[in-house]
Amino acid sequence: MGKASRSKQGDGSRQEKIAAQRAAERRRQNRVRLLIGGSAVVAIGLIVGLILALAPSRTSSSTASNQVLPPGVTSGTPVSQGPAVQTTSTSGIPGVTAWITTGWPTTSNNGPAAEALSHNHVDGPVTYTVNPPVGGVHNAEWMNCGIYDQPVPSERAVHNLEHGAVWITYQPSLPQDEVSALRAFVEHQSVITPAGAAASRFMDLTPYTGLSSPIVISSWGFQLKVTSPSDPRLQEFVDKFRASATYTPEYGSPCTGGLGTPLET
Fold first, then answer.
1. What's the pLDDT score for residue 92?
2. Quick one: three-class SS letters along the chain?
3. pLDDT at residue 143 tops 50
4. Cβ atoms of 183 and 264 closer than 8 Å
5. Contact indicator for 253, 197 with CB cutoff of 8 Å
6. Stated pTM of the model
């Protein structure tokens, strides 16, 4: 065999080796890319799974999981409230309905003892003639003031009214954006310490089944029905009656240290 033939065979052999090496390198690179891609998919899956696992716990810890509803009043002798007697409102706020409150008991700021809303404590459930109630007999244990997303026992909320709280109730079917507006309204109110009582907004916000108006705001002996959370009379009502030395029967009593844990205080 001549030198030229051997040279051509050598060149062909080298080219085949080079081609094989390049093919092997491509296969190696493909395996690396597949390995990296697979690892990335696994990592992304783990991250997404972790986010999904943590999301519900964050949601529950910031909302309903922190809420403890004040216990209902189910034992004891049931009580039916006597007729609540209306009177002329002197609040100056259009639409406010007033009930006789003055003169009962004689040591409070509250009209004739036979007609005024009672302040007595009772152990059993109470059927009120005004709904939501604006006063009358109630349970001896009040509830902590604040925002609750479920109905609360009226027997405890009425005790809060006696201490100067303003109670905003809304129909459970109220659109969520309007509920959010009511929450923002409550959270906007200042924290106060009337007559040295513990600091609180002295505000309750809860849904209430059976309302005749979308939104009802109540204090001890006074009530206003509105259709929108943007009604300016809501703020007028709060400014007039919330923890007022004139209108609060037990002015200086606390709105904290009671039962339940609200979503917002």
1. 97
2. CCHHHHHHHHHHHHHHHHHHHHHHHHHHHHHHHHHHHHHHHHHHHHHHHHHHHHHHHHHHHHCHHHCECCCCCCCCCCEECCCCCEECCCCCCCCCEEECCCCCCCCCCCCCCCCCCCCCECCCCEECCCCCCCCCCECCCCECCEECCCCCCHHHHHHHHHCCCEEEEECCCCCHHHHHHHHHHHHHCCCECHHHCCCECCEEEEECCCCCCCEEEEECCEEEEECCCCCCHHHHHHHHHCCCCCCCCCCCCCCCCCECECCEC
3. yes
4. yes
5. yes
6. 0.75
Beta carbons within 8 Å of 117's beta carbon, 6+ residues apart: 84, 99, 100, 101, 104, 110, 134, 135, 136, 220, 221
Task: Report which of 256, 208, 261, 204 is spatially closest to residue 65, judged by C-alpha positions.
Answer: 261
pLDDT confidence of residue 3? 47
Instruction: Check residue 83 and give its pLDDT.
Output: 84
- Which residue has tokens 């923890």? 243
Q: Which pLDDT band holds residue 17 (cuts at 50, 70, 90)?
A: low
Residue 141 has pLDDT above 90, yes or no: yes
For the stretch 94-118, pLDDT in tens is: 999 999 988 766 776 666 777 889 9
What's the CA gap between 107 and 121, in Å, rounded? 16
The strand pairing partners of 218, in sequence order, are 167, 223
Phi-psi sector, 195: left (phi>0), alpha (psi -120 to 50), beta: left
- Of the pLDDT bands very low, low, confident and very high (cuts 50, 70, 90), residue 25 is low
pLDDT confidence of residue 265: 87
